[in-house]
Amino acid sequence: MSSKGVTYRLKSRAEIEAMRAAGEIVWRAHQVAASLVKPGVSTAEIDEAVEAFLAEQGAAPLFKGAPGPVPYPATTCISLNEQIVHGIPGKRRLQEGDIVSIDIGCRLDGWCGDAAVTHAVGQIDAGARRLLQVTESALHLAIELLGQKSRWSEVARAMEQTIRQAGFTVFEQLIGHGIGREMWEPPQVPNFHHRAMDFPLRPGLVIAVEPMVGMGSKQIRILPDHWTIVTADGSLSAHFEHTIALTEDGPQVLTTGSGGLIWG
């Protein structure tokens, strides 16, 4: 399908079911990661556990070796507090009051799944908890509206309004993406209204929707590791993501347990 010069391929029912199998492994990997989220655990320990789980399932890490100035070196992206996305796991240990975003992707039998969750580490303050709630709510709103609207811009506008009305920031430099046999496929999927990146919503569309939301400035910067993206002012950020297929029966969340139910 082509829209305003952007060409992307719709998936068949069989292809969507193959992607659901990859997505369910991503969901199960998130359960492994979530079980380790506690003060004192290093981000490297979480990454190692997820890598071992994916290997047990016969799935390949989707992020490891991703091209960039330096190939991405880990299985997961684990981003703490002011880190928005693409945090590289390492020696840093979780502390009480942190928020930690864990992004996991895998490839199974040639098909990809991709999802992210931001967790509270122990007790977090009220502002951080509201940030997590609003960001996840924006994702769930998008899933709901995918079955009701005809164009992505309508969904994105509602997401943006929800986030901004709550007093939070949308990072306009960071967007979601189509997904299939490759992690990044057309179309581009912004979390805000952008007419040039609009596209029609049709059965067979599979996209990774991933609101990335901040408490402060919308300005970002990249750390010297070439990957970790942080808020320029050091304020907190959150990230939630699902791989979602639009079917004749409505939107189906592929990165969750069997049946395509919304995970949360």
Task: Reconstruct the topology from this structure.
Elements: E1 2-3, E2 6-7, H1 13-35, H2 43-56, E3 60-61, E4 77-80, E5 83-85, E6 99-108, E7 111-120, H3 126-146, H4 152-165, E8 169-170, E9 176-178, E10 185-189, E11 206-209, E12 212-214, E13 220-222, E14 229-231, E15 237-239, E16 242-247, E17 250-253
Antiparallel strand pairs: 1-2, 3-6, 4-6, 5-14, 6-7, 8-12, 9-10, 9-11, 11-16, 12-15, 13-14, 16-17
Q: What's the number of extended β-strand segments?
A: 17
Shape by Cα distribution: globular
Percent range for helical residues?
Answer: 25-40%
Tell me, rounded to a whole number, the average pLDDT: 95
What sequence of helices (H) and strands (E) makes up the elements?
EEHHEEEEEHHEEEEEEEEEE
Distance between the termini: 32 Å
Number of separate helices: 4
Report the β-strand fraction as a percent range: 25-35%
Please list the strands of the largest sheet in the order they lie side by side: 10-9-11-16-17
Largest sheet: 5 strands, antiparallel
Unreliable runs: none
Q: Which class of secondary structure composition applies to the elements?
A: alpha+beta
Instruction: Tell me the Rg in angstroms.
Output: 17 Å
